[in-house]
From TrEMBL:
SUPFAM superfamilies: Metallo-dependent hydrolases (SSF51556)
Signal peptide boundaries: none
Name of the protein described by the UniProt record: Amidohydrolase-related domain-containing protein
A single cellular component GO annotation: cytoplasm
PANTHER family in UniProt: 2-AMINO-3-CARBOXYLMUCONATE-6-SEMIALDEHYDE DECARBOXYLASE, ISO-OROTATE DECARBOXYLASE (EUROFUNG)
Example of a GO biological process term: secondary metabolic process
Gene Ontology MF terms in the entry: carboxy-lyase activity; hydrolase activity
Length: 324
């Protein structure tokens, strides 16, 4: 049975169950083997296939809703359990400020410093498996630059911003220039405004006005061709075809393939539009979907290797932070 037929006939949720069987109370070594059919070993073993590829998770969060370090430590243990079982060698962890105050995103330096402290705390506890991306808000330029220095000095490897300020906003310019000097990527939450969470909505429907859309990435990437940008989660519920087409001619914009949405052909379409060097693996804490959609794609062995590991490792290499 080829890969597509396997997924078509079992459904990804069933495929996910095969993986989850090994996650909760089963030894992955013993559950890895699928039952023989008529004495023949199975042609396609999803767990073995999944384990074949070492991974870097370029988009993963600690608990976004809880600021307490003790609770975060427990959450990190769960993440590390997933990492172990999914052969994820490095987690690029972040905690963007997602809280709204009276409907407006919290933009204060106190908030981003507090959030970065959580990541720094978890990095110190698990230095071999967890690294981090710092968050900040460029409208507070001095505080942001100081925060970037503080976080880089303690080993963080990139930037992560949310919907406080659009990536194309002029307040980002000095930060982008700093990131060029550091040779680090800027990962920004992104949506299409055509659809979120699997439903189609009208333009500007109920979203903070500063959410970055693909056009914002195109604009900042053209202004700073030597900078590197990561457009978050093409599987995050937006219109991924639109995203990929919009970013096609912006060679310094990468996309991560994370998100709970895993419509058929998403990965193949991204490859067709963006090429094999600009796709990054990320889970956004959705492991079955994010791994399953890559395994279900028609990418070659080499292309899968690039997506799961090499592309992001090459980015890390520029800043001297690569895994191998
Ligand atoms: Zn995320």
């Amino acid at each position: 049975m080829d890969r597509r037929k396997f997924f078509a006939s079992t459904g990804l949720s069933a495929a996910g169950l095969l993986v989850s069987k090994s996650l909760f109370g089963f030894d992955p070594q013993s559950s890895r083997a699928q039952p023989a059919v008529n004495g023949q070993p199975p042609k396609y073993d999803i767990v073995r296939e999944m384990l074949k590829y070492p991974k870097i998770d370029a988009h993963v969060h600690c608990d976004l809703g809880n600021g307490n370090l003790e609770a975060q430590k427990k959450f990190a243990e769960i993440l590390l359990d997933y990492a172990e079982r999914f052969n994820i060698r490095k987690l690029v962890l972040s905690k963007p400020v997602t809280r709204l105050i009276k409907g407006i995103p919290d933009a204060s330096p106190e908030a981003f410093i507090e959030h970065n402290n959580i990541i720094l705390g978890l990095m110190k506890l698990h230095p071999d498996r967890i690294t981090g991306s710092f968050t900040f808000n460029p409208i507070h330029l001095k505080a942001s630059l100081e925060e970037i220095k503080r976080c880089v000095d303690q080993g963080m490897v990139g930037a992560k911003t949310y919907y406080q300020t659009k990536i194309s906003d002029p307040s980002f310019y000095p930060i982008v220039e700093k990131m060029i000097d550091l040779k680090m990527i800027i990962h920004t939450h992104a949506e299409t405004q055509l659809g979120v969470g699997g439903y189609r909505m009208k333009y500007n429907g109920n979203k903070p006005k500063n959410v970055s859309i693909p056009e914002d990435f195109v604009a900042i990437a053209a202004r700073y061709p030597e900078a590197m940008f990561q457009h978050a989660h093409i599987g995050g519920g937006g219109d991924w075809e639109y995203m990929c087409k919009a970013l096609k001619n912006s060679p310094n914009v990468y996309v991560d393939t994370s998100g709970s949405n895993n419509e058929e052909h998403m990965i193949d379409f991204a490859l067709e539009q963006l090429g094999e060097d600009r796709l990054l693996f990320g889970s956004d804490n959705c492991y079955y979907q994010s791994v399953g959609k890559v395994l279900a794609s028609n990418l070659t062995e080499v292309q899968r290797k690039k997506l799961f590991f090499d592309n992001f490792n090459n980015i890390l290499k520029k800043g001297g932070n690569h895994v191998d």
